[in-house]
């Protein structure tokens, strides 16, 4: 599945100046985009590939797919975790090569679960929950732009997201039902992780990076209420998992904590 | 005796108790969990709203959407997942997410968007079960809804043309089928010897794709190469739906006066006649 890269890509080693682009950390980036960016950063750290994080207000528009984050490596630009994993694999680095076919199927299934439930819940909360939209999202999304562009772009994005929610059947859900779904997803992740350090025991894979990106962001982002992070806090092994990855792949390498606070 | 549970759903054909994935998921789950469902097949005399089908009606409740119906049945103690471990329960959720993200777009496309399939098979089948004048409007609306869903969830840049989106969703669907086949292996069901929720979902999504006779069949051809998945569907049909197929064949036989007429003969004579697979090649 996905693109296949020519030999020239595989031949070039990973450059020192590889860059990851995302929106402005303090004032602009939203919950779902921050989760995606952190997942990619965690994945690259796990592969031991150096990456520099650069914040740009127009990152969303620079990206080839319109989604953040994207990485600029050599003369290639690749966005989103899935394609980035494929690209890194073409360069000879992979975290999931040691898995057998059944385990790979499981890993892909759990990654879809995270996208299907956690990411969609984050998008719902950001763009369909009136309280969050009014107090946080609109202001943050439009912050780099002058009036009236800031309002127009925010409303346009909100309309797009709501249309998608309706198409997949989330349009009629209440916030409580969405939080229930988040709880169900966290319960499944917690049960799958069990007492292991990573989802496939000793070595982390892209699934660990993705789960870390979302859970860590949910835990450290301040929203209008704590309901979302409380759902995750119910599962102690997930908290330990986040702490473990943060310590091992971020703090130990002098990167410092990536938490953001939305005021 | 529990209050009677009535399920209103789309009917069957081509050897299936229902051609509608969501209805099939619920029917299969009910068989696996032993829930005594009275199945009401929708025909053109049915007065209810068709948008929410399948619908479960009890004395005091009306429940729609497969996930909610299954939850309701579990609360009534009809639980097909009783024997599963916590980890297997988690795996169930994950694989269902995989089905919805990777397989569903291509199934929707095969039934509702691919022009040859939609105009020769899907639309006539559904229109014959909807009263005039809704029969002129509703299938079109369902088709647009399917296309909408595909484009909104998968049609994002850098895929700008419908052909590119189509190519990508079929690639994803074939990979999903391969993953399911690897996961099933040689087992009878996904979690050991007893069927569970995941088996109901996989059966619901795969069986219509496997059995319905379409002109454009690329995904179906891929599925037929994965013999363990085909065996999985046939086993469930033979073990759990053999007796009810007779009822469905009477309703459908008169309507299948097209080139696909031979398929309806399969319903009663399944075991004695060899199955003719005359699907035209692309």
TrEMBL record, chain A:
<keyword id="KW-0813">Transport</keyword>
<dbReference type="GO" id="GO:0015031">
    <property type="term" value="P:protein transport"/>
</dbReference>
<dbReference type="Pfam" id="PF10568">
    <property type="entry name" value="Tom37"/>
</dbReference>
<feature type="domain" description="Metaxin glutathione S-transferase">
    <location>
        <begin position="183"/>
        <end position="245"/>
    </location>
</feature>
<dbReference type="InterPro" id="IPR040079">
    <property type="entry name" value="Glutathione_S-Trfase"/>
</dbReference>
<comment type="similarity">
    <text>Belongs to the metaxin family.</text>
</comment>
<dbReference type="GO" id="GO:0001401">
    <property type="term" value="C:SAM complex"/>
</dbReference>
<dbReference type="Pfam" id="PF17171">
    <property type="entry name" value="GST_C_6"/>
</dbReference>
<dbReference type="InterPro" id="IPR050931">
    <property type="entry name" value="Mito_Protein_Transport_Metaxin"/>
</dbReference>
<feature type="domain" description="Mitochondrial outer membrane transport complex Sam37/metaxin N-terminal">
    <location>
        <begin position="37"/>
        <end position="158"/>
    </location>
</feature>
<keyword id="KW-1000">Mitochondrion outer membrane</keyword>
<keyword id="KW-0472">Membrane</keyword>
<dbReference type="InterPro" id="IPR019564">
    <property type="entry name" value="Sam37/metaxin_N"/>
</dbReference>
<comment type="function">
    <text>Involved in transport of proteins into the mitochondrion.</text>
</comment>
<protein>
    <recommendedName>
        <fullName>Metaxin-2</fullName>
    </recommendedName>
</protein>
<keyword id="KW-0653">Protein transport</keyword>
<comment type="subunit">
    <text>Interacts with MTX1/metaxin-1. Associates with the mitochondrial contact site and cristae organizing system (MICOS) complex, composed of at least MICOS10/MIC10, CHCHD3/MIC19, CHCHD6/MIC25, APOOL/MIC27, IMMT/MIC60, APOO/MIC23/MIC26 and QIL1/MIC13. This complex was also known under the names MINOS or MitOS complex. The MICOS complex associates with mitochondrial outer membrane proteins SAMM50, MTX1 and MTX2 (together described as components of the mitochondrial outer membrane sorting assembly machinery (SAM) complex) and DNAJC11, mitochondrial inner membrane protein TMEM11 and with HSPA9.</text>
</comment>
<keyword id="KW-0496">Mitochondrion</keyword>
<dbReference type="InterPro" id="IPR033468">
    <property type="entry name" value="Metaxin_GST"/>
</dbReference>
<dbReference type="InterPro" id="IPR036282">
    <property type="entry name" value="Glutathione-S-Trfase_C_sf"/>
</dbReference>
<keyword id="KW-0007">Acetylation</keyword>
UniProtKB/TrEMBL annotation, chain B:
<keyword id="KW-0496">Mitochondrion</keyword>
<dbReference type="GO" id="GO:0015031">
    <property type="term" value="P:protein transport"/>
</dbReference>
<dbReference type="Pfam" id="PF17171">
    <property type="entry name" value="GST_C_6"/>
</dbReference>
<dbReference type="GO" id="GO:0007005">
    <property type="term" value="P:mitochondrion organization"/>
</dbReference>
<feature type="domain" description="Mitochondrial outer membrane transport complex Sam37/metaxin N-terminal">
    <location>
        <begin position="23"/>
        <end position="142"/>
    </location>
</feature>
<dbReference type="GO" id="GO:0001401">
    <property type="term" value="C:SAM complex"/>
</dbReference>
<dbReference type="InterPro" id="IPR050931">
    <property type="entry name" value="Mito_Protein_Transport_Metaxin"/>
</dbReference>
<feature type="domain" description="Metaxin glutathione S-transferase">
    <location>
        <begin position="173"/>
        <end position="236"/>
    </location>
</feature>
<dbReference type="InterPro" id="IPR040079">
    <property type="entry name" value="Glutathione_S-Trfase"/>
</dbReference>
<keyword id="KW-1000">Mitochondrion outer membrane</keyword>
<keyword id="KW-0813">Transport</keyword>
<dbReference type="InterPro" id="IPR033468">
    <property type="entry name" value="Metaxin_GST"/>
</dbReference>
<dbReference type="InterPro" id="IPR017410">
    <property type="entry name" value="Metaxin1/3"/>
</dbReference>
<dbReference type="InterPro" id="IPR036282">
    <property type="entry name" value="Glutathione-S-Trfase_C_sf"/>
</dbReference>
<dbReference type="Pfam" id="PF10568">
    <property type="entry name" value="Tom37"/>
</dbReference>
<dbReference type="InterPro" id="IPR019564">
    <property type="entry name" value="Sam37/metaxin_N"/>
</dbReference>
<protein>
    <recommendedName>
        <fullName>Metaxin</fullName>
    </recommendedName>
</protein>
<keyword id="KW-0653">Protein transport</keyword>
<comment type="similarity">
    <text>Belongs to the metaxin family.</text>
</comment>
<keyword id="KW-0472">Membrane</keyword>
